[in-house]
Amino acid sequence: MEYKQIEFKKITVDHLTCQSCNAKQHNVIGKLTYLYFFLESIPFVPVKKSINIVCNHCDSSFDVDSLSSSDYKIFSKKLFKLHALIPMYTGVIMVLLALSYWQYNSYQADSLSKEYIESPKVNDFYYINQKGINDEIPHNKKYVLGKVVSLTPNTVSLVFSRFLFENKSSLANDIRSSKVIGVKYFNKKHHVFTREKLLNFYQNETVLSVLRPKNSKLFGTLVLTSNLGINKQVKGYSENRIGLSFMLDADNKASLEDAERFFLESANQGYVQGQLNLARLYLDTNQTDKALAWSKIAALKGYDLAIEFYTQHCNSSEACDIAAFNAELIEAGF
Question: How many percent of the chain have pLDDT more than 90?
Answer without folding.
Answer: 33
